[in-house]
Structures are given as structure tokens and as C-alpha cells.
Amino acid sequence: MNIKGIIMSALAVALMCSCTDLNEKIYDQVSSDNYFNTKMDVIRAVYRPFQQGYYSVQSRQVIEELTGDLVATWKKDDWWDDGGRWRRLHDHTWTVEDEVLKTEWNGCFTGVMQCNSIIGDLSKLAPQKFGFTSAEFEGLISQCRTLRAWYYIRLLGMFRNIPLAVSCDASQNSTGQASPKEVYDFIEKELKECIELLPAKAGSAGNGLSEGQWTKAGAAALLVRLYLNAEKWIGEKKYSDCEAYAQKILDGTYGSYSLGKTWDEVYDWQNENCPEVIFAFPSAKGYDHFVYSGDMYWWTVPARTIANYFGDTKAGNGDHNCKYGLAPSLAPNGTPYTTVLGRPVAKFKKYPEDYRLKLYRNLGNSKREGMMLFGYLEYTENGVKKRVVSPTGGYELYLRDMVANFGNTAPDKVPADQTSDMLHGDHNSGWRYCKYPFYRDDDEGQMESDYVEIRLAEIIYSLAECKFRDGDAAEAGKLLNSVRLRNYPESAVKDYLYAPEGPVELTENELLDEWGREFISEGRRRTDLIRFNKFSTGVWWDKGADKDSHTEILAIPQDVLNSNASLKQNPGY
């Protein structure tokens, strides 16, 4: 069945349960008795929670990246302070009133309860009535069970002490919060069972028309995530379990997967054909494409670049904007910062021939090169060469690996005001990045990239980390090198590989740096920093260490506590 098309055109389904008060009754005029009339009704219902899942990744992106050391949203002239909401994430001083916490909680629990609703409804139906075999029907239910586990992994990692809701019948759910171990055990059990029920990907190419469908490898990859972070989440080391499932995925036990040939193949407009993609949310210009929303990747580049630099005026998402930038590696006077964490551009430049360090350019015919934006952004208009100008102040943009008020200061000069922090920046401050391509209006691939949630490189890096933690730095280095080879020209790669295949020593700090390079702005940095014990103790750019480690678990939003008296606030808030 064409799952990609179904997910992108999924209709609203009946019996959507409350997302904040899990004891609330269901109110809907459509019931399962009169909604499910055809086979397509069943399929559309199953995949409705997937649309919610795709929509919900926006809040995760904000929380995971802006609380970390690599990406930040500083004030740019009089733009992007917004009452300090982004500074609070950066400084780890968020409050129970911060909207993004509520959005993440509600977004995940909305998805959980949608899954519960569908699982409950389908359990009452006769598969044969709709033209399904019993095995096919169990497979559809397993899609929702796996997606529900994916939501719970996010909730466990973010909030830790959460309700466990497994049904729209409140009597079957936890009273108040379940322990982290209870939630963990539920996720593990669900995923292990679903691996047996889900299909394996067919063939050795990409997911094709089955993009957006959970497979055996997808469920196994979620177990890899669960086990990799178990020490932090439940106080139990599960690295051997993580290693076992990662190795099974690499061995092809759950289907054939392989790395993309180039670093950007996995993000490109035909990435449903990339064999590296394990699970992705389908996107299309005329359908859902949250990957190109402001909270994701549409606002990782300067404002006023839509027409003159990228040429994507007809994409339909409005102008670009400068929400996200790479945290600076240099002080405004050019002196390098020396913190272990942060400094993402410097971390990339450790291997200076990295293809990703090239200036992003559209090459035509849905092709691009480079990932970074820096320096002057030049373009040609009516035969005249021009440069992108700032949206305020009217100065020509010159993007520096620094944050300060530069204005018209020449690239080789030091600004008069050298203050560098979240409140003192402008549109010149910070390199920007293009993880997913911004193709021109005349390119077929404009806005067509699927959002990749899980890719094979994550499994390889997870296995490498397990090997490293077990004392086998050599094997960990080989695994990382298998991915890193595609990031550098053949003439340089011999000098960039980890030992024993090259001269670079793989230390714990280098391993965390490499996670940052490969997965920069992929909605996981907070989690990685916590796992390496760097999130609350770490120092980067203008951020000092936290007073204690309570920030590793987010505050439960005040609105949620107000709506459910059985919930208790997390420690430290």
C-alpha cells in the first residue's frame, strides 16, 4: 500500500483524547461505530497520529538545540529577544510558564492518546470485514504501538516523571505519574513485541513509497535510543543491549540498509530512495512539510535571502529568518574561545577540507553544495553583482564566527562595542547553516525533502559509543570512520581518520564533538550532552555551569499541573 501518500493526505480521525488531563472524557460526534466503513478508513485512521508526530518535532527541535552548546538564538539588533524566552533556554533558566515546555508535553501526549484511541478502536473490529488478514491488521496496530513508544521515549527523556497512559479508558492508566522505570519497561516491552509484528524493509534501496511506515529496523532503532540513554533515564547501564540491537541492524537482520554516498544524500529531495533512511516523515510541497517550518530549518538562514540568494520565493513559507545561528568560536576581536564545549565552526575546521564547510550554493537542477553560510552572501541581479543586506540597519551582511554588534564594521576591523552575549548581537553575528536544501523556484526538488527521524549513521555512532565506553576505542574509531569517509576528499581523509586507520586519537571529548558534527541541529544535542555528563556542568560561550543537575529534567508546565492535581512538579522547580 502507498503509505507515503496516505500519511501526507491523512484525514482527521474520530475519538481524539485530551492531551493534558488524561482523566478527561472523550467528546466527539463521530464514533468508531460509524467511522470505519472501508479499508481506507482504517488505514487513514492508523496514520493520523503520524501527522501529529511530524508536527510535534518542532518543539523538540527548539528544546534540544537551544539548550545545547552548538546552536543559539541571540538578540539581533532589535530582533529575536522575545521576552527572553530563547535566553532562558540557552542559560538553563526556563520556568514552568515557558510555552515551549507546554507545547512539547501536549504535543507528545496528544500523539499518545491518538495512538491509544486507534489501538482501542481497531481491537474491536473484525479484520476480514475490511479486507485485511489478521497479520496485516496486527501490523497496522503495531504501527501505532511503535509510534506511541516513540512519543514516550521523548517524554521520558524530557520530563522523566510522567503519566503512563495506555488507553482512552482512564482506569487502565497510571494514577498520577508512573516511575521512570515503569515507563521505560513499557517502552521496551512494546518495541520488542512490535519488532516481531512489523514488516522488514524490502530490498536494498530506500523506503520508497513505504516512507513513513515503521519497520522492524525502525522499532529496533528506537530500542537503541532507549538503551543508549538508560543510564541517565533510569540509572541502569544498558550499553550491551544497545550494542546488540545496533549490531543486528547493521548486520541486516531487520532489512538491508547502507550509508548514502554523500553527506547530504540523506537530506535531499529524493531521500525516500536513500538506503540510509530508517524512518522519515514524508514531506511534499503541497502537503505537510514541517521540516521547512520556522522552528525547524526554514529559519536557520538570514532574513531577506529568499529572493536574492536562494531564489525560493514560491516555496510558500514566506521569507527566511535568522532564528538559529551557530554559537561563536571567536570573541569579537578574533581571539579563539577555549571552552571544551561549543565552538561548532572551530570543531568543523579541525578537519578543514570537510565538504560541509563549503558555502551553501544552489547549483540548479535540484543540486546543491555546502552546508554553511558565512562572509558576504553575493548574488547577481539583472547582470549586477550585489550582496544581501540586513533587514534592519541597512548594512551589507558579513557573517562572522562571532557574536557582537558589528553593523557596518569592516570584516578586518574590531567593533567598538565588543560585548558578546545573548543580548549583544546583530544580523552579522554567527555562521548560519542549511542542513536541508533550499532549492530555487525552477527546481523540481523544492520543498520535497522528507524529514529524517532515524538514519543508519545514528546506529553506527551509537554502536561506536558503546564500544568506546567498553574500552574499545579502536573499533569505535573504525565505525565512526565508516561514516566520516564521505565528508572529506580522498586526498585529505588519510589525515582525518581515527586510529588505528588514521592519526587522530578518539577521546571522550572528540567522540562528543563528532556526534555534534554529524548530527548538528538534528534535535538531539541536549540528550547527548546529558548522556556525556556535560549538560549541567558544561561551560560554553557566555554560559556558565548550572547550579546543580536538576536542569537535566525539564519542568512540568504549570498549566499541566493546574489541570491534573495528581501530578507533582519535578525536583528543582
Explain what you see:
This protein has 573 residues and is mainly alpha-helical. It is built from 18 helices and 10 strands. Strands 1-3 form a two-stranded antiparallel ribbon. The protein has a two-stranded antiparallel ribbon with strand order 2-10. Helix 3 packs parallel to helix 6 and helix 13 (456-469) runs antiparallel to helix 16. Mean pLDDT is 93; it is low at 1-31.
Counting helices, strands and paired strands, the structural category is mainly alpha
Q: Characterize the main sheet.
A: 2 strands, antiparallel
* Beta-strand residue fraction: 5-15%
Q: Output mean pLDDT.
A: 93
Tell me the number of helical segments per DSSP (H or I, 4 or more residues long).
18
SSE run: HHHEHHHHHHHEHEHEEEEEEEHHHHHH
Radius of gyration using CA atoms only: 24 Å
> Helicity range of the residues?
25-40%
Q: State the distance separating the first and last CA atoms.
A: 48 Å
How would you summarize the topology of this molecule?
Blueprint: H1 3-8, H2 32-35, H3 39-66, E1 71-72, H4 85-91, H5 99-122, H6 134-159, H7 180-197, H8 216-228, H9 230-234, H10 239-250, E2 277-281, H11 306-310, E3 325-326, H12 344-349, E4 361-362, E5 368-369, E6 372-373, E7 378-381, E8 384-387, E9 432-433, E10 451-455, H13 456-469, H14 473-484, H15 490-493, H16 508-518, H17 525-531, H18 558-563
Antiparallel strand pairs: 1-3, 2-10, 4-5, 6-9, 7-8
Helix pairs in contact: 3-5, 3-6, 5-6, 6-7, 6-8, 7-8, 8-10, 10-13, 13-14, 13-16
